[in-house]
Amino acid sequence: MTDHFPRPEGTPLTLDWFETHSVNLSAAQRRAATLPTRRSVKKEWQAAWLLRAITCIDLTTLAGDDTEGRVQRLCAKAKAPVRADLLEALGIERLTVGAVCVYPTMVGHAVKALEGSGIPVASVATGFPAGLTPLPLRLGEIRYAVEQGAKEIDIVITREHVLRGNWSALYDEMRQMREACGDAHMKAILATGDLKTLSNVYKASMVAMQAGSDFIKTSTGKEDVNATLPVSLTMVRALRDYKDRTGQMVGFKPAGGLKTAKDAMNWLILMKEELGTRFMMPDLFRIGASSMLGDIERQLEHHITGRYSAANRHALA
Protein backbone atom coordinates (compact mmCIF):
# COMPACT_ATOMS: atom_id res chain seq x y z
CA MET A 1 0.00 0.00 0.00
CA THR A 2 1.37 3.41 -0.97
CA ASP A 3 0.85 6.22 1.51
CA HIS A 4 -0.13 9.65 0.24
CA PHE A 5 -0.56 11.08 3.73
CA PRO A 6 1.01 10.54 7.16
CA ARG A 7 0.14 7.20 8.69
CA PRO A 8 -2.33 7.63 11.59
CA GLU A 9 -0.55 7.32 14.89
CA GLY A 10 -3.55 7.32 17.21
CA THR A 11 -4.01 9.41 20.32
CA PRO A 12 -4.19 8.82 24.05
CA LEU A 13 -7.46 7.22 25.12
CA THR A 14 -9.88 10.14 25.35
CA LEU A 15 -13.27 9.08 26.71
CA ASP A 16 -14.78 12.56 26.29
CA TRP A 17 -14.80 12.07 22.52
CA PHE A 18 -17.28 9.20 22.57
CA GLU A 19 -18.42 7.88 25.94
CA THR A 20 -21.68 9.86 26.02
CA HIS A 21 -22.24 9.69 22.27
CA SER A 22 -25.46 8.01 21.14
CA VAL A 23 -26.66 7.11 17.65
CA ASN A 24 -30.31 7.43 16.65
CA LEU A 25 -31.11 4.09 14.99
CA SER A 26 -34.15 5.24 13.01
CA ALA A 27 -32.33 8.35 11.74
CA ALA A 28 -29.34 6.27 10.65
CA GLN A 29 -31.64 3.82 8.87
CA ARG A 30 -33.46 6.65 7.09
CA ARG A 31 -30.22 8.26 5.93
CA ALA A 32 -28.81 4.91 4.79
CA ALA A 33 -31.99 4.17 2.83
CA THR A 34 -31.65 7.42 0.86
CA LEU A 35 -28.04 6.86 -0.18
CA PRO A 36 -28.71 4.56 -3.19
CA THR A 37 -31.42 6.97 -4.44
CA ARG A 38 -29.51 10.25 -4.10
CA ARG A 39 -26.94 9.66 -6.82
CA SER A 40 -27.51 8.18 -10.28
CA VAL A 41 -24.38 6.77 -11.91
CA LYS A 42 -25.03 5.42 -15.40
CA LYS A 43 -23.29 4.23 -18.54
CA GLU A 44 -19.58 5.10 -18.81
CA TRP A 45 -19.61 6.70 -15.37
CA GLN A 46 -20.94 3.51 -13.83
CA ALA A 47 -18.25 1.51 -15.62
CA ALA A 48 -15.61 3.87 -14.22
CA TRP A 49 -16.98 3.50 -10.69
CA LEU A 50 -16.98 -0.29 -11.03
CA LEU A 51 -13.37 -0.23 -12.19
CA ARG A 52 -12.55 1.88 -9.14
CA ALA A 53 -14.38 -0.66 -6.94
CA ILE A 54 -12.15 -3.44 -8.29
CA THR A 55 -9.03 -1.53 -7.23
CA CYS A 56 -10.49 -1.36 -3.71
CA ILE A 57 -11.31 -5.06 -3.31
CA ASP A 58 -9.42 -7.19 -0.80
CA LEU A 59 -9.84 -10.45 -2.72
CA THR A 60 -10.33 -12.97 0.05
CA THR A 61 -10.29 -16.65 0.85
CA LEU A 62 -10.79 -17.64 4.48
CA ALA A 63 -11.96 -21.23 4.27
CA GLY A 64 -10.95 -24.17 6.39
CA ASP A 65 -9.96 -26.12 3.27
CA ASP A 66 -7.72 -23.42 1.76
CA THR A 67 -4.72 -24.85 -0.06
CA GLU A 68 -1.63 -23.46 -1.77
CA GLY A 69 -3.31 -24.11 -5.13
CA ARG A 70 -6.43 -22.17 -4.19
CA VAL A 71 -4.35 -19.22 -3.01
CA GLN A 72 -2.33 -19.29 -6.24
CA ARG A 73 -5.52 -19.18 -8.31
CA LEU A 74 -6.84 -16.31 -6.20
CA CYS A 75 -3.60 -14.40 -6.71
CA ALA A 76 -3.76 -14.97 -10.47
CA LYS A 77 -7.24 -13.43 -10.46
CA ALA A 78 -6.00 -10.56 -8.30
CA LYS A 79 -3.37 -9.72 -10.92
CA ALA A 80 -5.87 -9.97 -13.80
CA PRO A 81 -9.33 -9.34 -12.29
CA VAL A 82 -10.99 -8.48 -15.63
CA ARG A 83 -10.62 -10.31 -18.95
CA ALA A 84 -8.07 -8.74 -21.26
CA ASP A 85 -10.56 -8.17 -24.09
CA LEU A 86 -12.87 -6.23 -21.75
CA LEU A 87 -10.01 -4.06 -20.48
CA GLU A 88 -8.93 -3.35 -24.05
CA ALA A 89 -12.47 -2.29 -24.97
CA LEU A 90 -12.52 0.03 -21.96
CA GLY A 91 -9.15 1.54 -22.83
CA ILE A 92 -7.47 0.25 -19.66
CA GLU A 93 -3.94 -1.15 -19.83
CA ARG A 94 -3.58 -2.64 -16.35
CA LEU A 95 -5.87 -3.20 -13.39
CA THR A 96 -5.38 -5.05 -10.12
CA VAL A 97 -7.30 -5.48 -6.87
CA GLY A 98 -6.32 -3.69 -3.67
CA ALA A 99 -4.93 -6.73 -1.82
CA VAL A 100 -5.26 -10.47 -1.31
CA CYS A 101 -6.46 -11.52 2.14
CA VAL A 102 -5.70 -14.98 3.56
CA TYR A 103 -5.01 -16.84 6.80
CA PRO A 104 -1.49 -16.49 8.31
CA THR A 105 -0.33 -19.92 7.15
CA MET A 106 -1.27 -19.00 3.57
CA VAL A 107 0.63 -15.69 3.56
CA GLY A 108 3.88 -17.20 2.26
CA HIS A 109 2.09 -18.81 -0.69
CA ALA A 110 0.36 -15.53 -1.53
CA VAL A 111 3.54 -13.46 -1.26
CA LYS A 112 5.31 -15.83 -3.66
CA ALA A 113 2.41 -15.84 -6.13
CA LEU A 114 2.15 -12.02 -6.10
CA GLU A 115 5.88 -11.30 -6.36
CA GLY A 116 6.53 -8.32 -8.59
CA SER A 117 2.83 -7.40 -8.92
CA GLY A 118 2.77 -4.62 -6.34
CA ILE A 119 -0.31 -6.18 -4.73
CA PRO A 120 0.03 -6.41 -0.93
CA VAL A 121 -0.91 -9.48 1.06
CA ALA A 122 -3.28 -8.98 3.96
CA SER A 123 -3.62 -11.56 6.71
CA VAL A 124 -6.30 -12.03 9.32
CA ALA A 125 -4.88 -12.62 12.76
CA THR A 126 -5.52 -12.47 16.53
CA GLY A 127 -7.59 -15.63 16.73
CA PHE A 128 -9.84 -14.77 13.79
CA PRO A 129 -12.84 -14.80 13.77
CA ALA A 130 -13.71 -14.96 17.49
CA GLY A 131 -10.56 -13.32 18.83
CA LEU A 132 -10.78 -15.26 22.09
CA THR A 133 -7.34 -16.84 22.24
CA PRO A 134 -4.92 -15.56 24.91
CA LEU A 135 -3.39 -12.18 24.11
CA PRO A 136 0.22 -13.44 23.82
CA LEU A 137 -0.92 -15.93 21.17
CA ARG A 138 -2.82 -13.23 19.29
CA LEU A 139 0.22 -10.97 19.29
CA GLY A 140 2.41 -13.87 18.21
CA GLU A 141 0.08 -14.57 15.30
CA ILE A 142 0.43 -10.97 14.12
CA ARG A 143 4.23 -11.21 14.26
CA TYR A 144 4.18 -14.52 12.40
CA ALA A 145 2.07 -13.09 9.57
CA VAL A 146 4.33 -10.04 9.30
CA GLU A 147 7.43 -12.24 9.22
CA GLN A 148 5.82 -14.25 6.40
CA GLY A 149 5.47 -11.06 4.37
CA ALA A 150 2.01 -9.66 5.14
CA LYS A 151 1.82 -5.90 4.64
CA GLU A 152 -1.64 -5.55 6.19
CA ILE A 153 -3.06 -7.27 9.27
CA ASP A 154 -6.81 -7.59 9.84
CA ILE A 155 -7.15 -7.98 13.60
CA VAL A 156 -10.33 -8.75 15.54
CA ILE A 157 -11.27 -6.95 18.72
CA THR A 158 -12.48 -8.46 21.99
CA ARG A 159 -16.24 -7.84 21.79
CA GLU A 160 -16.65 -8.31 25.55
CA HIS A 161 -14.70 -5.11 26.19
CA VAL A 162 -17.22 -3.18 24.08
CA LEU A 163 -20.29 -4.85 25.57
CA ARG A 164 -19.03 -4.07 29.09
CA GLY A 165 -17.82 -0.58 28.23
CA ASN A 166 -14.28 -1.48 29.27
CA TRP A 167 -12.66 1.01 26.91
CA SER A 168 -9.27 1.10 28.60
CA ALA A 169 -8.89 -2.67 28.22
CA LEU A 170 -9.88 -2.47 24.54
CA TYR A 171 -7.50 0.42 23.92
CA ASP A 172 -4.54 -1.19 25.70
CA GLU A 173 -5.02 -4.45 23.82
CA MET A 174 -5.19 -2.73 20.46
CA ARG A 175 -2.15 -0.58 21.14
CA GLN A 176 -0.18 -3.77 21.69
CA MET A 177 -1.56 -5.17 18.43
CA ARG A 178 -0.56 -2.02 16.58
CA GLU A 179 2.96 -2.31 17.99
CA ALA A 180 3.14 -5.97 16.93
CA CYS A 181 2.15 -4.98 13.37
CA GLY A 182 5.24 -2.81 13.02
CA ASP A 183 5.27 -1.31 9.53
CA ALA A 184 2.30 -3.45 8.43
CA HIS A 185 -0.98 -1.57 8.38
CA MET A 186 -3.55 -2.62 10.98
CA LYS A 187 -7.19 -3.03 9.97
CA ALA A 188 -9.39 -3.34 13.07
CA ILE A 189 -12.38 -5.66 12.62
CA LEU A 190 -15.15 -4.53 14.97
CA ALA A 191 -17.50 -7.49 14.31
CA THR A 192 -20.37 -5.01 14.37
CA GLY A 193 -23.03 -7.69 14.24
CA ASP A 194 -21.97 -8.70 17.76
CA LEU A 195 -21.95 -5.18 19.23
CA LYS A 196 -25.76 -4.90 19.58
CA THR A 197 -26.19 -1.12 19.10
CA LEU A 198 -25.00 1.57 16.71
CA SER A 199 -23.83 3.57 19.72
CA ASN A 200 -21.47 0.71 20.58
CA VAL A 201 -20.30 0.65 16.95
CA TYR A 202 -19.46 4.36 17.13
CA LYS A 203 -17.61 4.02 20.43
CA ALA A 204 -15.63 0.96 19.31
CA SER A 205 -14.71 2.78 16.09
CA MET A 206 -13.39 5.74 18.05
CA VAL A 207 -11.31 3.57 20.42
CA ALA A 208 -9.87 1.64 17.48
CA MET A 209 -8.77 4.89 15.84
CA GLN A 210 -7.35 6.30 19.06
CA ALA A 211 -5.36 3.07 19.37
CA GLY A 212 -3.75 3.75 15.99
CA SER A 213 -5.71 1.63 13.51
CA ASP A 214 -4.99 2.37 9.87
CA PHE A 215 -8.46 1.10 8.91
CA ILE A 216 -11.66 0.25 10.73
CA LYS A 217 -13.54 -2.73 9.30
CA THR A 218 -17.14 -3.82 9.84
CA SER A 219 -17.08 -7.59 10.12
CA THR A 220 -15.26 -10.88 9.94
CA GLY A 221 -17.88 -12.20 7.53
CA LYS A 222 -18.64 -14.95 10.05
CA GLU A 223 -21.24 -13.11 12.17
CA ASP A 224 -25.00 -13.52 11.69
CA VAL A 225 -25.16 -9.86 10.54
CA ASN A 226 -22.23 -8.38 8.64
CA ALA A 227 -21.80 -5.11 6.73
CA THR A 228 -24.96 -3.00 6.49
CA LEU A 229 -25.35 0.58 5.31
CA PRO A 230 -26.56 1.92 8.72
CA VAL A 231 -23.54 0.34 10.46
CA SER A 232 -21.20 1.62 7.76
CA LEU A 233 -22.73 5.10 7.99
CA THR A 234 -22.10 5.10 11.75
CA MET A 235 -18.48 4.06 11.26
CA VAL A 236 -17.66 6.58 8.54
CA ARG A 237 -19.17 9.37 10.63
CA ALA A 238 -16.97 8.31 13.52
CA LEU A 239 -14.06 8.36 11.09
CA ARG A 240 -15.03 11.86 9.97
CA ASP A 241 -15.33 13.08 13.56
CA TYR A 242 -11.91 11.64 14.36
CA LYS A 243 -10.37 13.33 11.32
CA ASP A 244 -11.93 16.66 12.32
CA ARG A 245 -10.44 16.36 15.82
CA THR A 246 -6.97 15.07 14.93
CA GLY A 247 -6.33 15.65 11.24
CA GLN A 248 -5.50 11.93 10.94
CA MET A 249 -7.01 10.06 7.98
CA VAL A 250 -8.15 6.51 8.75
CA GLY A 251 -9.49 4.12 6.14
CA PHE A 252 -12.74 2.13 6.06
CA LYS A 253 -13.41 -1.46 5.01
CA PRO A 254 -16.88 -3.01 4.79
CA ALA A 255 -16.78 -6.80 4.65
CA GLY A 256 -19.23 -9.67 4.83
CA GLY A 257 -22.35 -9.94 2.68
CA LEU A 258 -21.18 -7.64 -0.13
CA LYS A 259 -21.61 -9.76 -3.24
CA THR A 260 -22.88 -7.73 -6.18
CA ALA A 261 -21.86 -4.81 -8.36
CA LYS A 262 -24.84 -2.93 -6.90
CA ASP A 263 -23.37 -3.41 -3.42
CA ALA A 264 -20.09 -1.94 -4.64
CA MET A 265 -21.91 1.08 -6.06
CA ASN A 266 -23.90 1.63 -2.85
CA TRP A 267 -20.81 1.65 -0.66
CA LEU A 268 -18.91 3.89 -3.07
CA ILE A 269 -21.86 6.29 -2.94
CA LEU A 270 -21.68 6.20 0.87
CA MET A 271 -18.02 7.19 0.76
CA LYS A 272 -18.62 9.91 -1.84
CA GLU A 273 -21.61 11.41 0.00
CA GLU A 274 -20.17 11.30 3.52
CA LEU A 275 -16.42 11.75 3.03
CA GLY A 276 -15.73 12.85 -0.54
CA THR A 277 -13.80 11.53 -3.52
CA ARG A 278 -10.49 11.12 -1.64
CA PHE A 279 -12.04 8.35 0.43
CA MET A 280 -12.92 6.33 -2.68
CA MET A 281 -9.24 5.49 -3.22
CA PRO A 282 -7.76 2.09 -2.22
CA ASP A 283 -5.43 3.58 0.38
CA LEU A 284 -8.52 4.72 2.34
CA PHE A 285 -11.27 2.36 1.17
CA ARG A 286 -11.33 -1.41 0.80
CA ILE A 287 -14.11 -3.91 0.22
CA GLY A 288 -13.73 -7.37 1.71
CA ALA A 289 -15.18 -9.65 -0.96
CA SER A 290 -14.72 -12.63 -3.20
CA SER A 291 -17.83 -13.33 -5.29
CA MET A 292 -18.44 -9.60 -5.95
CA LEU A 293 -15.66 -9.48 -8.52
CA GLY A 294 -17.42 -11.90 -10.85
CA ASP A 295 -20.60 -9.81 -10.88
CA ILE A 296 -18.67 -6.58 -11.51
CA GLU A 297 -16.92 -8.19 -14.49
CA ARG A 298 -20.30 -9.35 -15.79
CA GLN A 299 -21.70 -5.80 -15.55
CA LEU A 300 -18.68 -4.42 -17.38
CA GLU A 301 -19.23 -6.91 -20.21
CA HIS A 302 -22.85 -5.78 -20.41
CA HIS A 303 -21.70 -2.16 -20.66
CA ILE A 304 -19.45 -3.05 -23.60
CA THR A 305 -21.64 -5.52 -25.49
CA GLY A 306 -25.18 -4.65 -24.37
CA ARG A 307 -25.71 -8.29 -23.41
CA TYR A 308 -25.55 -10.15 -20.11
CA SER A 309 -23.39 -13.25 -20.14
CA ALA A 310 -23.87 -16.27 -17.91
CA ALA A 311 -22.35 -15.81 -14.48
CA ASN A 312 -20.16 -18.88 -14.99
CA ARG A 313 -18.25 -17.01 -17.71
CA HIS A 314 -16.72 -14.88 -14.96
CA ALA A 315 -15.36 -17.37 -12.51
CA LEU A 316 -13.57 -16.03 -9.43
CA ALA A 317 -10.39 -17.99 -10.01
Automatic annotation (TrEMBL):
Name of protein: Deoxyribose-phosphate aldolase
Alphabetized UniProt keyword annotations: Cytoplasm, Lyase, Plasmid, Schiff base
Enzyme Commission number(s) of this protein: 4.1.2.4
Stored CDD domains: DeoC (cd00959)
Subcellular location field: Cytoplasmic granule
Pathway: Carbohydrate degradation; 2-deoxy-D-ribose 1-phosphate degradation; D-glyceraldehyde 3-phosphate and acetaldehyde from 2-deoxy-alpha-D-ribose 1-phosphate: step 2/2
Catalytic activity line of the entry: 2-deoxy-D-ribose 5-phosphate = D-glyceraldehyde 3-phosphate + acetaldehyde
UniProt superkingdom: Bacteria
Family per similarity comment: Belongs to the DeoC/FbaB aldolase family. DeoC type 2 subfamily.
InterPro entries: Aldolase_TIM, DeoC, DeoC/FbaB/LacD_aldolase
GO (cellular component) term, any one: cytoplasm
Top-tier EC class: lyase
GO BP: carbohydrate catabolic process; deoxyribonucleotide catabolic process
GO molecular function: deoxyribose-phosphate aldolase activity
Gene that produces this protein: deoC
Organism lineage: Bacteria, Pseudomonadati, Pseudomonadota, Alphaproteobacteria, Hyphomicrobiales
Pfam families: DeoC
